[in-house]
Write a structure and sequence with these properties.
- Helices cover about 50% and strands about 15% of the residues.
- By secondary structure, the chain is α/β, with parallel strands linked by helices.
- It folds into 2 domains: about 35 residues; about 120 residues, Rossmann fold.
- The chain has a 5-stranded parallel beta sheet, sandwiched between helices.
- Strand 4, helix 5 and strand 5 form a beta-alpha-beta unit.
- The chain is globular and about 35 Å long.
- The protein starts with a helix and ends with a helix.
Length: about 170
């Protein structure tokens, strides 16, 4: 008699568990469709990871990106760049500054081309005009990886960021 009640409780728990999973799945599908419960479209905020070794430059760049509607994460260590793309939430775009150390910046930039896991992530490299020859020679540019040299117009900068994010979402 004890064994019969044990089986009926276990079956009830399984049925409840299945019902909860299907309910959760329906809610997840609704949220993935981009609509809230009220039927309005959700506005998604793109997340940008900034790799900038200089603290002052990083703060200025992060403030600029926040003013333009981006969610901003930042790191000053090159190891932190790849690690951040392995954790959740993954950034939608990586911005690397080559002003202080172009070699480390180029290594991080090019790693996103040859690593198959990172190849789908868009990367934007910011360099100085005096680094033009070095960056054009060694930076591997494709449809998800772009280089911009300072000085540049901020409108162009934001347009390219949005373009790279859209391209990565289509890929």
């Amino acid at each position: 008699m004890v064994s019969q009640s044990h089986f009926s409780v276990r079956k009830t728990q399984q049925d409840f568990s299945c019902a909860e999973q299907s309910s959760l799945l329906r809610r997840t599908r609704k949220s993935e469709s981009g609509q809230s419960k009220s039927g309005q479209l959700k506005k998604t905020t793109a997340t940008v990871l900034v790799f900038e070794p200089d603290d002052t430059s990083m703060k200025k760049l992060c403030a600029f990106l926040r003013r333009n509607g981006f969610r901003v994460l930042s790191t000053q260590r090159p190891e932190g760049v790849e690690f951040r793309f392995k954790t959740w939430p993954k950034p939608d775009l990586l911005i690397i500054s080559a002003h202080q150390n172009a070699d480390i910046a180029l290594k991080a930039f090019n790693a996103f081309s040859w690593n198959p896991y990172l190849a789908k992530c868009p990367v934007f490299l910011i360099g100085a005009s005096c680094q033009k020859e070095l960056l054009t020679k060694y930076a591997k540019i494709d449809h998800l990886r772009k280089v911009i040299l300072t000085p540049f117009k901020t409108e162009l900068f934001v347009r390219v960021i949005n373009s790279l994010i859209r391209r990565s979402q289509r890929a």
